[in-house]
Amino acid sequence: MNKFFSQINWPLVLGAIVIFELLSFLAFFFTDLNYIFLILTFIATAIIAWRSLEWGILLILIELIIGSHGHMFSIDILSFSLSVRMSIWLAVMLVFFVKLIIQRQSLIAIIKKIPYLKFYILLAFFIAFSLINAFFLGNDLSNILANFNTWLFFLLILPISYVYCVKDKQRLERLKSIFFLATLWLSLKTLFLVVFFSYDIAILPDLYRWLRVTGVAEVTTMADTWPRIFLQSHIFSSIAFLILVFKRDFASRWNIKEMLFAAVFLSTVIISFSRTFWLSMIIVFILFSAFTLIKTKKLKKIKHWFLKIFLIVILSFSFIYLANNILFLSSTSQFSLRNIRDRASYQEDEAAVASRWSLLPVLIDDIMKKPILGHGFGATVLYESSDPRVLQFHEDGWYETYAFEWGYLDLWHKLGLLGLIAYLSFLLSLLFYSFKYRFQYFLTPALLFLVIVHFFTPYLNHPLGIMIILLISCLLVKDKLL
What we know:
Elements: H1 10-29, H2 33-51, H3 53-67, E1 74-77, E2 80-83, H4 84-102, H5 107-112, H6 117-136, H7 141-149, H8 157-164, H9 169-197, H10 204-214, E3 218-221, E4 227-230, H11 234-246, H12 256-272, H13 275-295, H14 299-325, H15 337-344, H16 351-367, E5 381-384, H17 388-391, E6 398-401, H18 407-436, H19 443-453, H20 463-475
Antiparallel strand pairs: 1-2, 3-4, 5-6
Helix pairs in contact: 1-9, 2-3, 2-4, 3-4, 3-9, 6-18, 8-20, 9-11, 9-12, 9-14, 11-12, 11-13, 11-19, 12-14, 13-19, 16-18, 18-19
């Protein structure tokens, strides 16, 4: 493991992550501690970013991976909820601008060095236009601010490009190490949660409330009482798996550590029971396996490659089984392939699926009212939902929201058709160059996975997806990550 995380003190970083999780759990029950921990996090981030802006960015990445929704600590200020994610973001951005002033560096000169600058400028224009349009159309102010808030994450391109758009292999190695270490912890945490929810442990109700309220994870009961454990940040596990699998062609040698890590990451994707992740993973895997098959002509090496993939799949299911039975006691639920079959099969009367499809025609009708310019941030749609989470607070099923699970339609609704085209052009450009530059080939399946996932689960307008876009755009400039 030392070789895999050679550029960081991984026991120290991992220990800090575990302590951060435990403090979040503690602060959930002693709510006043949120104020203390949030202030301390802001101060600590500012000090670390002041000493090394690179590590400030790495702290943001760690929080995104382990924090999912970003509310592991949060406080209410008037009617505004300040989360730990906002706190870390503010600290890094503040330090970045203060350093520019002190060092008398030109912001314009830094902006000019941003990779794919024309796409960022074009996207910024439509984001600004959507904000102005929202006020012009009279959208609810609280909805505007809540919806626009996530798009501010794009401002991180300033410090990220400043740090990573230079030729420095050690920085890129540290980025790789932090990404895989934090994602490994995310996957192990998911397996730990399987252990907890497989047995009737006394702490289980408190653990569930912490996960649910902070947004760290969603835990729901499926058939045979199997707990579905889904974290929005599982997208990083999916991408980590794809990077490990496709960073080598059929002729390259694998090591056992990479195979074990890939199996852990894949087990997390399976445990998430996210059909969107499964479908996106299958599409990407088929496309790039076919491409590699065409490129490679040695049958023996192809067989060895697929054998290793098969072993990774077997290992991933073994990890799930071990977590489900690790205490060697009679568990309250048992994992089986039937769970996967039932989840994969489309059931038209399933509430969540029916709710999503009932939104679709209503959303399209509303888009067609202002197809070119859009409705701006915070624009809502009223539709009838059968989702139990909605019915819990709206007995008649009628639900008004500005957040839509149809990702590209959400972009169209807010940014308008021209804004959607601008974003898609940016993504297609990144895909083209990631495929064109052989040394960055492994980024193509990761990026394609994000693009496909967004159809049914919004990520491109969420800090998790935005961070991936920011990093990939910088990694496609000169250097390679792996």
